[in-house]
Amino acid sequence: MSLQTSAHHVAAVHSYRGLRATEHFFDVPLDHADPSGEQIRIFAREVVANDVENSAALPWLLFLQGGPGGAGPRVTSLSGWIGEAAKSFRVLLLDQRGTGLSAPVSRQSLPLRGGVTAQTEYLRHFRADSIVRDAEAMRRALGVERWTTLGQSYGGFITLSYLSLAPEGLERCLVTGGLAALTGHADRVYRHTYARMAARNAEYFGWYPEDRATIDRVFAHVDSVAETLPDGRPVTRGLVQMLGQYFGGNSRVHQLHFALEQAFVETVDGPRLSDAFLSTLQAQASRLVNPLYALMHESIYGQSGHGRNDDGTVATSWAAERVVHEFADFLPTAGHPLLTGEMVYPWFFSEDPALAPLREVAEEVAGIEDWPDLYDLDVLATNTVPVAAAVYTDDVYVDRDLSLETASRVRGLRVWETDEFHHDGIADDGAGIFARLLSMTTPEPREGATT
Q1: Out of 130, 153, 161, 286, which one is annotated catalytic?
Q2: CA gap 4, 6 in Å, rounded
Q3: Model pTM?
């Protein structure tokens, strides 16, 4: 039976191996500044361990997924960080607005808003500040006094906004690979990112020098032979460079080598890119499942008060495309182009069939000049919420130096820096990382106290 309140209802409860999952829906304002205006529906899945007695009495942990544009995890067993967290928490896996079952944004749904300008105005409400206010509405609807959060990657960015906007709702915060730069324009972020990616390219091709020759062969091949992905778009140098997304992981990086092993196949027309390799390219390049990532990626760095460019402008205006010219080895026209990472370029919206209908909207979003600030530096400087963050020394997506700069500006934030993991550390040893960060936010027993 559905349990109703004015803003929250439980839709269904399902049992899987070792866990019980409860589906929650919350009605929240599209614009939290206009609570009586249009409402949207937000989805989150509560996960508890079956073998925990009186799980209803456990404290809550809200998981903030990476992205932007990533839905909450879909799990059917307890393992990794979720298995560790479920020992002592009710875990709430949020679909952030625009993703999963939470007012999803796509080439199919966005035109329902009207024309390009109306769509752009709608997307203004899909950044971290709105996600934080959704979380607060959810917390109140659930009757939770304060909860713990775990933010992975972009989820860490949201955590910093949460600490700025509504710290009263937070018991403690854990962050993995997600300490965003608090000030400065997106250009500054990408200068650090390109430098990290250049170093990662050198490391990878040091391990696999034969792959440098294979990649160069692929570039030369697509210059002279028309190859297309399964979705019909042409294979270009820029698209091949997107294979650098593999560089963000400890073990995943080596999967690139295995993909390149079967890059070519002999056919009656001579050597061609294999179907297996073309499928790998499409998996890295397509934004069919998460178009919000491409639409909003650079906007997560947009701030009116703390994010001005060297020339005084605020709009992100395709920062990755602009800054790449300072790192010529990443240009597709380079003699041996380096592989790129999570950068978003305007040509995505011309070549990707899933993004092409959103090209005009993407241009307008890139040109927005009046994004509100996402962080309150004064509030962060006087923070009282326990925060622990894993900073990965060689992270190619969230720069270590910028992360440590941010950590120094958040009162009481404790850093665990390690070179053992890359950006996807919680996929490698989620249980260990979660347990370590949790212990870093647990108060030490007072001297003389009994335990």
Answers
A1: 153
A2: 7
A3: 0.95
